[in-house]
From TrEMBL:
Keywords: Glycosyltransferase, Transferase. This is Putative phosphoribosyltransferase. SUPFAM superfamilies: PRTase-like (SSF53271). GO terms for molecular function: glycosyltransferase activity. Belongs to the ComF/GntX family. It comes from Anaerolinea thermophila.
Length: 254
């Protein structure tokens, strides 16, 4: 165990060093202010909107009073615990967009300390980390699954098994970003399949970049439970609301 931990720590250091060399040759620009030499400069990174302690202890949504949000008081979600680092706005939104659509994968390691801090302060029961998969078509087009990029590093950081192929998207779905709340649930229904041999009896931590309605994570969780998982939790970088998503695309459904 000790040797395995030592190895993963060294792999993370090597990864970080490799990016430092690449950045020396091709100096990056801050995704927020454009300053040369940083992927996101410390001044801009500090402005990310992270959640404080006022969150629902089950679904992680910000709450104004009490330990549970109004929704979890009525009906608990199918996941054991859900946490997000912060609101899908400002720095976190630009970070996710740059990683997802602009191939800025060198950004990934910046988010590790936040993920690990939230992980260490949350009573997750996990022994396997799985990123929400893209369809084969979308992964081919993009060239990578952006969640797997930071998910692999995060799993190394917390010394847990990383299983990016244990869950698959069985057919190509529309991007959730352009859909209404109701359509999002329909869009992902039956869209995933999982490998029972890898999943049976395990405590799974699902990763995604943004949670909005929860439709994708709930569908993934259901698929994983059907394969005999012991528990399923989720961790996302940001949390958005449908209203916010609509504003972003001009206030109308596309
Ligand atoms: Zn900056
Ligand atoms: Zn809640």
């Amino acid at each position: 165990m000790q040797i395995a931990r030592y190895k993963t720590t060294n792999r993370l250091k090597a990864y970080s060093l490799a990016w430092k060399y690449i950045d020396l040759i091709y100096p990056p620009q801050c995704i927020i202010c454009g300053k040369i030499g940083f992927r996101c400069c410390p001044e801009c990174w500090e402005k990310r909107n992270l959640y404080s302690s006022h969150i629902c202890k089950i679904c992680g949504k910000p709450t104004t009073a009490g330990e549970l949000c109004a929704q979890c008081k009525i009906e608990k979600p199918p996941l054991h615990i859900i946490r997000s680092l912060g609101k899908y706005t400002g720095v976190l939104q630009t970070f996710i967009t740059a990683l997802k659509y602009e191939r800025n994968i060198g950004l990934a390691e910046l988010i590790l300390p936040d993920l690990t801090r939230v992980f260490n302060h949350t009573p997750f029961q996990t022994d396997m980390v799985i990123p929400v998969p893209l369809s084969k078509k979308r992964e081919r087009e993009r060239g990578y699954n952006q969640v797997a990029v930071w998910g692999r590093l995060f799993a190394m950081d917390i010394h847990q098994d990383f299983a990016p192929r244990a869950l698959q998207r069985t057919y190509h779905t529309l991007s959730q970003v352009s859909l209404s709340a109701e359509k999002r649930w329909e869009n992902v229904r039956g869209a995933f399949s999982a490998n029972p041999e890898q999943i049976r009896g395990r405590n799974i931590l699902l990763l995604d970049d943004v949670i909005t309605t929860g439709a994708t994570l709930y569908e993934c969780a259901q698929t994983i439970y059907q394969c005999g998982a012991n528990s399923v939790s989720a961790l996302t970088i940001a949390r958005s609301s449908i209203k916010k998503t609509l504003n972003k695309i001009g206030g109308s459904y596309v």
